[in-house]
Amino acid sequence: MSYQDRVSAHVRELRSVPEVVVSTCELGSGPPRGLSADDAALIGAAWGEDAVEGVGDYLLSTDRIHVAWQTDDHYLFGEFAVEDVRICLTGDGLPGADWRLPAQKRELMEWELKTLEEAPGSGRLTALRVPSGGRSRELWFYDMNHGRLELLELDYRSYLENLLLMKGAPGWQYLFTEVDLEDREFQTMVGQLDRTLEALPVLFPDHDYSRLQERYEVRCSRSPVFRRHRSPWTT
Fold first, then answer.
1. Are 94 and 109 in contact (CB under 8 A)?
2. How many angstroms separate the CA atoms of 46 and 31, rounded?
3. Distance CA 42, CA 109 (A)
4. Rg (CA), the chain
5. For 24-69, how does the pLDDT look when each residue is reduced to its tens digit (9 = 90+)?
6. Residues 103, 194: contact at Cβ < 8 Å?
7. Which of 3, 53, 80, 174 qualifies as a FRET site for 192, CA 20 to 30 Å off?
8. Does the pTM of the predicted model rise above 0.85?
């Protein structure tokens, strides 16, 4: 099953929960656009020839897919807009640099990053690093709200897998960075992540959230909001 078909299946799961409202669902139509020789050359130039074979199932039939949802009490929510990797690699870079960042990260943001996925209007996005004349498989997470640009411990495919599992819930990317989530700066975000990881396994028991829950507990166990909230979705 293609990634786009799997997103469609997850949207159906969201809509199967009476308390969930899917406010945006833009998935495009038609079969995935196959990997052409030009596409293979593009991806090979950016990531190396060995990366080409594993990308096929993640290609989209449209330039971008966009999904947003929330529970009717706004206790849980998520959003993601993902660009087809071919559009990402050939598209424009980020619109500008954040002057709160260190000079090296500012330069990276201005010259080498291209948006792969974002929650529009949230101030958060994930970008591929596309250095001029070089190769990189790095993904970087930018959060304007905290003035952070962080390298992710994920590759392209594993990022899309976790994005789908978390259904675009805010802040999950921080679990795959070196950021200290026990800092009070992240208290609100960690609280939302705590509620999400407690509720999603109840709402969607066919998916395995144990690995993400374990990672959360390791990263946030001493946070002042750890397990402070009781989800209305649990008994």
1. yes
2. 25
3. 21
4. 18
5. 999 987 776 788 999 999 999 999 999 998 898 899 989 999 999 9
6. no
7. 3
8. yes
